[in-house]
Amino acid sequence: MAFKKLRFKKFTSKEMSLKSSRFLSEIKTRHTVRDFSDKDISLEIIFNCIRAAAASPSGANKQPWHFVVVKDREVKKQIRIAAEKEEKEFYTHRATKEWLQDLNQFGTDWKKPFLEIAPYLIVVFRKKYDINKSGSKKKNYYVNESVGIASGVLLTALHLSGLVTLTHTPSPMGFLGDILGRPKNESAYLLIPTGFPSDSATIPNISKKAFTDVCTVV
Fold it and tell me: Rounded to a whole number, what is the largest CA-CA distance in the chain?
């Protein structure tokens, strides 16, 4: 295998501290939003964010992901109908009482109008395996971990571009592959509505765990 020299820009300790502090301040302004504006957005912005996600590390560099950008109104409507069918089943039959109590703080139910209102839906698919030209299967490694990292980069890129997002995971999500015509080696991992917030958008008044609860130095 050929290698190339790493191009690494060094910063002073002060610069590094400032950069990390600025990023922390910015990322803390990211919120999950369910009230979207239907205002259009340049597709170039969405593509740049996906390019950033596709640059993420992955097991053995297999890059086991595929991103589908949905902007067609009819397709978004189909996705909403299918998602609400699964969500209604979840809220009325599948979810435990404890789970529903945990969701109460967000004021959510099975109705998902944002799936039609948001200008774009980005569906992240995980590739369980690749298919060679001969039709044989080629194994991918650490698929969930790799796609999870890429999804985090995508959400961060969208936020830093000035957009809001929602991480939506209707379960099961098999309908997404059917509606979008994806091959059998792919399964839906995450559905991300993105765009501008509506003028009346609100967010739950919640807090994060204390730093000492999530980080330990040994």
Answer: 57
Segment 27-85, tens digit of pLDDT: 999 999 999 999 999 999 999 999 999 999 999 999 999 999 999 999 999 999 999 99
Mean pLDDT, the chain, rounded, equals 96
Per-residue H/E/C for 121-174? EEEEEEECEEECCCCCEEECCCHHHHHHHHHHHHHHHHHHCCCEECCECCCCCH
Residue 157's pLDDT band (cuts 50, 70, 90): very high
Residues whose CB falls within 8 Å of the CB of residue 11, separated by 6 or more in sequence, listed in order: 19
Does residue 123 contact residue 180 with C-beta atoms inside 8 Å? yes
Nearest to 185 by CA among 121, 122, 148, 135: 135
Could you give the CA distance from residue 152 to residue 65 in angstroms, rounded to a whole number?
13
Residue whose tokens read 């995971």: 169
